[in-house]
Amino acid sequence: MSNESNDRADTAIAIVSTAYLPAVRRNDVTETEMLIAVVDEALGKVGLKRSDIGFSCQGSCDYVSGGTFSFVPNLDAMGAWPPIHESHVEMDGAWAMYEAWVRMQHGDVEIAVALGSGKSSTGDPAEIYLNELDPYYLAPLGPDPVSLAALQARQLIESGKSTERELAEIAARSRRDAANNPKQQVRSAETDVDKLLAEPYLRNPLRKSDLPPISDGASCVVMATARKARELVSRPAWIAGIDHRSEVHNPALRDLTDSPSTRLAAEKAGGVEGVEVAELMAPFTAQEVVLRQALGLGDDVVVNPSGGALTGNPLMATGLVRIAEAAEQILSGGRNRTLAHATSGPLLQQNLVCILEGDN
Amino acid sequence: MSTQTSSTIQFPYKRTLGPVISRFFSELTAQRIVGIRSGERVIVPPMEYDPETGNALEPDFVEVGPAGTVVSWTWVAEPGKHHPLDRPFAYALIKLDGADTNLLHALDAGSEDAVSTGMRVAPRWRDEPVGRIDDIVAFVPGETPEGPAAGEAQDVQTMDYFSTITYTDVLSPTLERYAASMRAGVITGQRCPQCNRVFLGRGYCSVDAITLGEEHEETLPDYGVVSNYTIVTPTPYPGQKETEPFARASVVLHGDEMVIAQQQIIGIPVSEIRVGMRVKAQWFADDARNAAEITSKGWGTVAGFIEGWLPTGEPDEPAEQYMNRVF
Ligand SMILES: [Zn+2]
Fold first, then answer.
1. What residues of B are in contact with residue A66 (Cβ under 8 Å)?
2. What does the alpha-carbon distance between residue B230 and residue B244 come to, in Å, rounded to a whole number?
3. Contact at 8 Å (CB) between B232 and B241?
4. Chain B residues touching residue A31 (CB < 8 angstroms)
5. pLDDT in tens, A69-97
6. What value does the mean pLDDT of chain A take?
């Protein structure tokens, strides 16, 4: 596919602006107020008003926020009177972006907004995550997300596909990158690999450094069709492809050292060839290894320069942050081809891949 | 000082099991573990469909185990309230003898040093089986199952699962000021400089999506007009405390469009509630007011401060004024 800008069809869709709030252990304001701030920032960057938006889609989760229909007050962040065209997914904002992208295929919406938001600070992930598990075979046994991630990490290590040292190196690299990203939460933690390996196990073979923090946050991307995109920014981040695929729910029935759904989604989204930067939603170190290997990313691909979900993990916003960061690599970073990944469900059950391109 | 409010949401689920899970749980009550055949493979725990192809599976069950081999494990040194054992234990992926997939379960091994990949384990059966996955209390090291003598299989068609989540909310700065004002028996709202609408307990304008601060706050009257109502005849369900027909009304505060929904009208029979009726807040006594119902979710509430609304006896506003609205 050519990267010449004048070859982009008028129906091409690009990300033109992104914003996300700093991931923090607890944000004092409400989820709606967080969303107002992040929408203001994303629209402000490109001089748009809410009345310019043809469609918006939010991603959030009632189990995380602890309120029924909590997406209804969240919609106030878009200003919903007079009535607007909008939707909601009970998923990470990355899937809200996917829905908005699908909606834009109709051709009658020039500008759309996708949002992701979550306040994990009000609940205990070990309680909340049980409600996403198979209620017959899994939930009654109480497996918390860290225990599940540890079962995956051990299989990865014992199958020879990774080592505890490699996991510690991923933690150290993520923390060093986070130190340069004021929006990440874990920014001044230990980065010496030997010292990390000397720390005790939290869930053998995982140490604290292999785990994400508990975070509040919100994210937003603004998408536009070709003509509008060129009006709004000099270097749109074109969505070359986006796809998501799912596997069987019960992790015990899967090969946890591979992620065929990620591989398939990447193929359907246009493939990884030429990808310079990949933002992978890997809240646990071992999952970055699984994803990198499943995608076949070479050593020349820069992985998670933002610091990744390992150093800032606002549930329901994290995946969309990956897309925002991969888009910024093109919008403001001068890259030509980047990849964003988001995941949902226990141990990489469902995976979304978005390939973004800049004009050469 | 910040106010924390705590709430616990409970879901008392009762689930039907379908033909495959029902068979698996029924067999567990007789201390047998069955898988289901999919081609050459035996899938345990059994599924209604092949996990890789999605093809529906015939009800071709095959007994496996009861012993098996640990394929992966982790150690839970400090069990929490949702964990199945109250002492340190392992979670393990276990490949039961005769199975081609793994089963997730707890492993009661005593100490972390006693756990390794490749070790042999067998189930410890519950004393009185109920037909759930935790009829196997845990796996234990070795080849020999533990527990009472096996009884007859029960016909298990449903399972109970009680889910509970506790949330601790720390009130936002706006809600903190709002709660303080309500404790003092004063309703405050924030007026939007753009559209002049007033909102209580929110922190922003719902129409214009702009943040409203302390500078936008003003005292609101604690009286107004019933703009709509419904009479609910309660049916029993978990959490329903009402037994007699009751009313829920919307009250528009005097002089503004701020609607407080889901309010009780007190002091009169529900049959006498009218749209247009003038009402005044009945506040709880000072020491009975509490902010437990105020959360960072939703649109603000007077619950915990205002018990209900008493008719003032003044002439009604014309009902027609309130017809063209939802609340
Ligand atoms: Zn307004």
1. 7, 9, 165, 167, 169, 295, 297
2. 14
3. no
4. 296-297
5. 888 999 999 998 889 999 999 999 999 99
6. 95
C-alpha to C-alpha distance for B137 and A54, rounded to whole angstroms: 55
Contact A253 B51 (CB under 8 A): yes
The model's pTM: 0.95
* B-chain residue closest to A136, CA distance: B133
Question: Per the omega criterion (within 30 degrees of 0), is the bond before A260 cis?
Answer: no
Question: Which of B161, B207, B296, B326 has the most A C-beta neighbours within 10 Å, making it the best mutation to test the interface with A?
Answer: B296
Interatomic CA distance for residues B118 and A122, integer angstroms: 40
Cβ neighbours of residue B105 closer than 8 Å, sequence gap 6 or more: A141, B91, B92, B94, B133, B136, B138, B139
**B-chain residues within 8 Å CB-CB of A76?**
204, 206, 209
Pairing of strands A337-344, A277-279: parallel
pLDDT confidence of A67, banded at 50, 70, 90? confident
Instruction: List C-alpha distances in Å: A131 to A150, A245, A313.
Output: 19, 21, 19
**Same-domain status, A58 and A88:** yes
Do A171 and A193 reside in the same domain of the chain?
yes
Same domain, A137 and A229: no
Say yes or no for a CB contact (<8 Å) between A253 and B117.
no
Same domain? A35 vs A184: no
Question: Poorest-confidence range of B22-26, B92-96, B140-144, B261-265?
Answer: B261-265
Among chain A residues, CA nearest to B204: A33
pLDDT of residue B255: 85
* pLDDT given for residue B2 in this prediction: 76
Which segment of A62-66, B80-84, B85-89 scores lowest on mean pLDDT?
Answer: A62-66
Residue window 248-277, chain A: list those with CB within 8 Å of chain B. Answer: 248, 250-254, 256
Query: B200 or B216: which carries more pLDDT confidence?
Result: B216
> In the prediction, which pLDDT does A2 show?
40
Looking at the structure of chain A, the number of domains it has is: 2
**Is residue A80 located within the same domain as residue A195?**
no
Across the interface, of A80, A205, A252, the residue whose CB is closest to B93 is A252
A92 to chain B, closest Cα gap in Å: 19
Q: Phi and psi of B183, rounded to 5°? A: -60, -35
Q: Is the domain of A79 the same as that of A103?
A: yes
| Same domain (yes/no): A272, A290 | yes
- Please name the member of A73, A76, A124 whose beta carbon is closest to the beta carbon of B297: A73
- Cα–Cα distance, A336 to A329 (Å, whole number): 8
A230-268 pLDDT tens trace: 999 999 999 999 999 999 999 999 999 999 999 999 999
Evaluated on CA atoms A147, A151, A157, A162, the torsion sign reads negative
pLDDT at res. A6: 54
The answer to whether A201 contacts B52, with C-beta atoms less than 8 Å apart, is no
Cβ neighbours of residue B44 closer than 8 Å, sequence gap 6 or more: B33, B34, B35, B36, B64, B65, B96, B99, B100, B101, B103
Q: According to the model, what pLDDT value does residue B132 have?
A: 96
Both A332 and A282 in a single domain?
A: yes
Which pLDDT score is estimated for A236? 97
| Digit-coded pLDDT (tens) for A93-126 | 999 999 999 999 999 999 999 999 999 999 988 8
Nearest by CB to B298, which of A37, A67, A142?
A: A67
Burial degree of B4 (CB within 10 A; 0-12, 13-18, 19+): exposed
Q: Exposure string (b/e) for A278-298, b if CB count within 10 Å is 16 or more? A: bbbbbbbbbbbbbbbbbbebe
Nearest Cα neighbor of B305 from B323, B324, B279, B286 is B286
